[in-house]
Amino acid sequence: MYYIVEHKHLDEVLSVIQLFYFGEKIKQVDEILDDDIVIKSTIKDDLAICTIYKDKKEIVCKKNSLENLSKDSFSNEKARIIKLTVYQAIQQIRPLNMPWGILTGVRPTKKINEMLEEGFSEESIKNILEEKYLATNEKIDLAIDIAKIEKNILKNNNKNKISLYLGIPFCPTRCVYCSFPSFNLSQYTKKVDLYLDCLEKEILAMKDYVNSFDIESIYIGGGTPTSLNENQFYRFLKMIDDNFKKPLIEYTIEAGRADTITRDKLKTMKDFKATRISINPQTMNDKTLKLIGRNHLEKEFLEAFYMAREEGHNNINTDIILGLTDETSKEVLYTMDKIYTLSPESLTVHTLALKRASRLNENIDTFNPSSFYEMEKMINITKDYAKKMNMYPYYMYRQKNMIGNFENVGYCKDGLECFYNIQIMEEKQTIISFGAGATSKFYFEDTNLIKRAFNVKSVDDYINRIDEMIQRKREIIEEGI
């Protein structure tokens, strides 16, 4: 698959091509080639034009006017018309109706909430999403329902409230789909304590600033925080407890992988007043767990979950991923049957995405992705089971290169929404972040603007450049906006 773009909206064109050719190698060229499909996007005489060639012969040509462009909150209108033209052209050779249409690379609920604040009615938002972006009614209703739940939580935000994120970038092994800052623990054993030293230095540097606000939530992520040994894990949670005020609403810790969970670590989390933890199987099928690089089996996940219940953890989230190697709706049905018997308080359903930094993307030739129709079946299975568990969708985000252009959805039981998840997606609250690969977002309510301070991803760079990471935050704090 090849493509040619003769304007500046290259990324938008590529994002649409990838919807229809997920997992295939797509290359940019500057000429029409023999023996393959070439998709060409150009602008001429106020027209967006998409021409598709096969063996140098034109087989499709679609045009849309770029005159009298209107405006909405979802995207640049010129870019939208270009994407629409490419989408309509490809549909003629690959007749799929994508659930989100041409809406790619955005947080739909954030945009909907912004439009509601601007005075748009729900009906007008539905019309825009359906008519201009070709989203299905089912996805539009999902996005609006979630946006309203989030809006109800966000209404309590004010400039005196913040949240915190702290990252532990180590895992026992690296999963094939992962692109997060995550490093094999066996290669960094001698540097974990040094990493914690630097993390503590970063915490101490920000302590006074952070404690001048009300801390609403703390989220411990990774990597896998519980990959630390028991002494290191205790030290890590104690440094948070010693230096920051207690969160008002929520304290989440990703216990993540069953092969890192021990009874002592579960006790430590309770001792330091964690209110919500995640124990994530991703799938309950042992064959798949081995293929994706997890170091645990279904049995070990179940043992870890029951152990967490025994230690008093009464708000447990489980993550699963749809579209994993060789899985079909049959395997997803098995996974959901098992999760149903556990009755967790929340369930996060991820659609597999091809991340640039993942091993899966590096070995794409050996990957056999789920079909669009199979993925649709899997999503419907998880939706039905969530309903059976008395859960409703409260949180959603989308990524580039997702199978079938679907979405990731968080479900929860009544009143158990993950506060931090909503804040990180909607970007209406300052979140100060610590650790390798963490990004702090300073939200300025008066101007509705965000300034970001990025920490380097490499553990070695983080250790060697910790003073620089601290200074980046200080500059934004001193500068204001």
Outline of the structure:
By secondary structure, this protein is of the alpha/beta class. It contains 17 helices and 18 strands.
Task: Please provide a written account of the structure.
Helix 3 (108-117) crosses helix 5, helix 7 (192-210) packs parallel to helix 17 (466-479) and helix 12 (329-342) packs parallel to helix 14 (372-388). 40% of the residues lie in helices and 22% in strands. It is α/β, with parallel strands linked by helices. The mean pLDDT is 91. It has 2 domains: 1-93, Rossmann fold (3-Layer(aba) Sandwich), CATH 3.40.50.10150; 156-434, tm_1862 like domain (pyruvate-formate lyase- activating enzyme, Alpha-Beta Horseshoe). It has helices at 10-20, 77-91, 108-117, 122-132, 137-154, 185-188, 192-210, 230-243, 263-271, 286-292, 298-310, 329-342, 359-362, 372-388, 419-426, 459-464, 466-479, and strands spanning 2-5, 27-28, 37-44, 47-54, 57-65, 161-168, 170-171, 183-184, 214-222, 250-256, 276-279, 316-322, 346-351, 392-397, 408-412, 430-434, 439-444, 449-454. Helix 8 links the parallel strand 9 (214-222) and strand 10. The strands form 4 sheets. Strands 14-15-13-12-11-10-9-6-16 form a 9-stranded mixed β-sheet, with helices on both faces. Strands 2-1-3-4-5 form a 5-stranded mixed β-sheet, covered by helices on one side. A two-stranded parallel ribbon has the order 7-8.
